[in-house]
Amino acid sequence: MSSAHIRILIVKLSSLGDVLHNLPLVWDLREHLPEAQIDWVVEEAYLDLLEPLRSRNGLRGIDRIIPIALRRWRNNIFSLKTWQEFFAFRKHLQAQTYDVVIETQGLLKSALVCAMTKKTSTTVVAGLANATEYSGYEPIARRFYTQAVQVPRQCHAVDRSRWVMSAAFDWPLLNRQQQPPYFYPQAWVEGLISATQNSISQNYVVFFHATAREAKRWPNKNWITLGQGLAEQGLQIILPWGSAAEKLTSELIAKEIDGAVVPTAFSIKEAFAVVVGAQLTIGVDTGLTHLAAVLARPTIELYCDSPKWKTEGYWSEAICNLGDLKNPPAAKTVLAVAERLLKASQSALSKQAIDAS
Length: 357
Prior knowledge:
By secondary structure, this protein is α/β, with parallel strands linked by helices. The protein is 40% helix and 17% strand. It has helices at residues 16-22, 24-32, 47-50, 70-74, 80-93, 108-116, 157-169, 186-197, 220-231, 244-254, 268-276, 287-294, 308-311, 331-356; strands spanning 7-11, 37-43, 64-68, 97-103, 118-128, 147-149, 204-208, 236-238, 280-284, 299-303, 319-323. Helix 2 runs parallel beside helix 7 (157-169) and helix 9 (220-231) crosses helix 10 (244-254).
């Protein structure tokens, strides 16, 4: 079958960081199969992560983004509207017949999406054959694949997705050094940076202190020490939050740092502008920190109770990964690295200004 006639479905429903680390598949597929149809099923909450990759204006990325609302439907299982939306989703999904389905989540919910997909007798449905350490996995999902792909027990999230994709097409595994992952179109990122930085007047650093699992948090006293050190250098500290409890923590930290700001809640779409406008983003192992990293913005990722190898940003010198499983970094270490990244960023901007003059 020629590239122009191959129809591919990517199934990666959630969560924020997992979807981000799956983005390189789109560009890996485009490099090998430039004319293929590539569609993606994703939870409705994460649509904005995929929108910049949508095929339009001469860019060939994702042809069809298919939203699903499993999280919302679960909370309203007996609602007529829920079932109407589910059947509308299924109709949307089955409007196309796929030749290859790539499922990189390894959960029953994503495997069931594969089962609902319209396929031919030769369709390849590739998914994970085994769990990787510190990641969710449900062995029953294997029953829904035609090709269960064995991956290393310790495997970076980007590499794991590439492993499944490569097996689905019988391609050699991509080498991360020779073919580093590509996330968002460079022209789109540059346009976003330009538009955002033209509209801000204060140099600021973003602290993403919150995460779903308490053990992955960095102590408040460390955030305060770090914030005070950066504030002394004329930087404003921004402390986002996603829940009432997280907002309270942001306020407690902000009280101890001169000029620190606790913003109003913002969407994922607005988060793009927040991180690209920042001089630096510092955060624990959580989705919004990974957003800054995949945009290749100056980022420090803090690992306190999760292994660095699983999600560390390895594709840009602007990213620094500190700490590791059960080995959180010291505040003074983070401050020293922050100062180094800020200095490097300022040097790069000065060089750009000289080159442009």
